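Researcher: Quick test of sequence recovery. Tokens follow.
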């Protein structure tokens, strides 16, 4: 992922730290990585209109559309100014806590001050309403640093809008929802094995959880209606939705990884990072190392059976991983701790932060942990539970 540079706050926009992203100097803010989906880079004005026109868009996308377009177009018009700010040298204050390093084709920032993360779940929120409020308070007259900050905030929320409206990515699950979705999926699977079963044996707790979820609630109501036409469709959609939801919490085994004793070997193709293999391996292997296991990167020639590294270009982009294509894309201006996070995805971990959409408030809520590298790459490390998952996945 890429992390926003420390920039002057834009009034209310300063609260939107979790979703700050984009090309530029890292700031001390918790941020998601959003692996597996391509980032929002380049001109963003056309995207705002495109998302609002999609079938998945609702009242939240319509109510402030004209102002959203105005802000996006203004950011596009000031893209050169924003890029100049992103490329400017480290300030004295930034240089006291970050060291600029060149790693192959990208510029990265190595933290000089050890992180002291909190060890429980934290919550942050963002919304277009808050962004618009800050923009209007400035009357559209922003300095260079404020344009940079605004660009990061808008690109971050557009990323979530794209996931929710265009790709249909799960935007309702929180960290505490793993148990109920697994129980519901298991009940449906058990029902499917019983001839003539149309209504799974959901517990009272299962029903409470489903009734709190708009889509699940409507399908559950159809199941309880005793209408034959509704029953079949409702069970099908509940089955598909619960299966998809379970994947959000599953480990995705990388079949190219092999284990020898307490060493986990990960073959990968360096691509444009061929001249920085030692550097890159150092940042990754030092994080994925414990008394139980330690990771060793094995640099290999390109092959369809292993992951490959790529260099991405574009203003406002952040690093990402695609499991299907076995592709890892790194963008410039990231913290060196981000390498360990992306390699965590290559090992099979999903993101351990959660984006939850509240339609009634037109607001995204983000749940994350500062002490988990798969939740917050700036401050996290590998948790004991993640080491146990690796031991089970790669026996």
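Model:
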């Amino acid at each position: 992922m890429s992390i926003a540079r420390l920039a002057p706050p834009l009034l209310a926009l300063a609260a939107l730290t979790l979703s700050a992203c984009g090309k530029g100097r890292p700031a001390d803010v918790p941020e998601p990585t959003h692996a597996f989906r391509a980032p929002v880079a380049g001109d963003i004005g056309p995207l705002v209109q495109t998302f609002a026109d999609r079938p998945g868009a609702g009242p939240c996308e319509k109510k402030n559309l004209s102002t959203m377009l105005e802000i996006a177009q203004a950011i596009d018009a000031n893209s050169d100014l924003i890029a100049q700010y992103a490329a400017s040298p480290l300030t004295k204050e930034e240089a006291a806590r970050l060291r600029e390093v060149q790693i192959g084709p990208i510029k990265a920032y190595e933290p000089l001050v050890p992180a002291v993360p909190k060890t429980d779940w934290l919550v942050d929120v963002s919304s277009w309403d808050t962004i618009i409020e800050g923009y209007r308070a400035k009357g559209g007259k922003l300095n260079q640093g404020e344009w940079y900050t605004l660009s990061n905030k808008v690109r971050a929320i557009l990323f979530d809008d794209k996931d929710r409206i265009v790709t249909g990515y799960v935007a309702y699950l929180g960290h505490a929802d793993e148990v109920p979705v697994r129980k519901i999926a298991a009940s449906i699977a058990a029902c499917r094995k019983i001839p003539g079963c149309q209504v799974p044996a959901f517990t009272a707790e299962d029903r409470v959880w489903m009734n709190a979820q708009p889509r699940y609630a409507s399908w559950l109501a159809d199941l309880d209606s005793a209408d034959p036409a509704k029953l079949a469709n409702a069970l099908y959609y509940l089955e598909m939705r619960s299966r998809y939801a379970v994947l959000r919490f599953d480990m995705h085994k990388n079949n190219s990884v092999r284990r020898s004793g307490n060493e986990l070997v990960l073959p990968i193709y360096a691509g444009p990072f061929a001249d920085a293999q030692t550097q890159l391996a150092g940042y990754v292997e030092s994080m994925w190392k414990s008394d139980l296991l330690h990771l060793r990167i094995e640099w290999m020639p390109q092959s369809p059976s292993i992951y490959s590294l790529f260099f991405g270009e574009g203003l406002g982009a952040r690093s990402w991983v695609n499991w299907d294509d076995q592709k890892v894309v790194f963008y410039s201006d990231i913290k060196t701790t981000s390498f360990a996070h992306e390699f965590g995805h290559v090992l099979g971990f999903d993101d351990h932060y959660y984006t939850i959409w509240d339609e009634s408030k037109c607001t995204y809520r983000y749940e994350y942990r500062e002490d988990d590298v798969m939740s917050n790459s700036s401050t996290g490390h590998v948790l004991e539970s993640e080491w146990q998952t690796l031991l089970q996945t790669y026996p």
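The mean pLDDT is 87.
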